[in-house]
Q: What sequence folds into this?
């Protein structure tokens, strides 16, 4: 899920440094107030690496990849020894390279992620991102199945649940259904109240068009955590992609949008409206679908998928 990408690895302050007011606001998902704090910090001192780092994180949350990359690059330039700075700079470059199809940006990702891991071998999110790079990049750019598995095994030694999820993602890329189910279900058994593995397993079933299995996986989570709106969003997403269980999908998405989580910034709300529009289109309600797509663009003008859906 988009929000998982945006919010993981939030802790990035160097050891021993107290959390600033801006960081407290960031952790509390008070995005606008946090941005004001860090913007003021940069105006007072442009060499404040932590302020640039969080401005980069906030730009990512706003789906402003150009600003995110610039701010995170500045943080790395100012303070090269913080693992989280390199991780998020690598993540921002990854997203921007995917959007712009820029191979020069893509080539710069691996050094940042490897540096993040070298600085802190227990940074699971850095190892996770490096695993994704190794498993998806071509060999000429540093991709390696063996290196990806090494990262998964290292993650497993730190956190068994995250290790199973990592191995499950490698199985997804290998199209090994048995291994995907084994690893993701093992992760669910270890952390049955965490959405991460349910989402990964449901995503696999969606890719295989096994719609009943995708719904059933998310239903397992919702049964345990009925108050988590992201579980409802997941059901709505499967309905939008599959064209099945449309009434439940619409109900779930409207519930999510009526009371969105505090950490759901514009791009997350925009994606929910996009999915609602797709559900409504499946139901033949083109006028309502158009209104949902317009809401998606109002929440995030960079939502190209919603723009393309409008006639």
A:
């Amino acid at each position: 899920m988009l929000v998982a990408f945006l919010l993981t690895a939030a802790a990035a302050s160097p050891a021993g440094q107290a959390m600033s007011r801006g960081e407290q606001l960031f952790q509390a998902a008070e995005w606008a107030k946090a941005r004001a704090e860090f913007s003021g910090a940069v105006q007072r001192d442009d060499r404040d690496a932590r302020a640039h780092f969080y401005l980069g994180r906030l730009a990512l949350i706003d789906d402003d990849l150009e600003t995110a990359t610039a701010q995170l690059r500045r943080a790395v330039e100012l303070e090269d020894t913080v693992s989280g700075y390199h991780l998020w700079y690598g993540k921002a470059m990854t997203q921007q390279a995917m959007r712009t199809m820029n191979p020069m940006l893509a080539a710069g990702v691996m050094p940042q992620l490897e540096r993040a891991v070298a600085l802190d071998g227990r940074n699971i999110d850095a190892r996770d991102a490096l695993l994704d790079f190794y498993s998806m990049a071509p060999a000429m750019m540093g991709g390696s199945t063996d290196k990806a598995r090494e990262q998964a095994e290292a993650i497993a030694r730190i956190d068994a649940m995250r290790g199973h999820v990592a191995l499950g993602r490698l199985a997804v890329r290998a199209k090994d259904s048995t291994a995907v189910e084994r690893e993701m279900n093992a992760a669910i058994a270890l952390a049955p109240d965490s959405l991460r593995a349910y989402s990964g397993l449901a995503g696999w079933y969606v890719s295989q068009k096994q719609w009943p299995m995708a719904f059933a996986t998310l239903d397992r989570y919702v049964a345990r955590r009925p108050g988590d709106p992201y579980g409802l969003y997941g059901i709505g997403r499967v309905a939008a992609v599959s064209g099945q269980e449309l009434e439940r999908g619409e109900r779930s998405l409207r519930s999510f949008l009526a009371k969105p989580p505090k950490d759901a910034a514009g791009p997350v709300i925009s994606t929910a409206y996009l999915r609602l529009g797709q559900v409504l289109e499946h139901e033949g309600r083109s006028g309502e679908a158009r209104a949902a797509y317009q809401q998606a663009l109002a929440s995030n003008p960079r939502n190209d998928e919603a723009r393309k859906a409008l006639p």
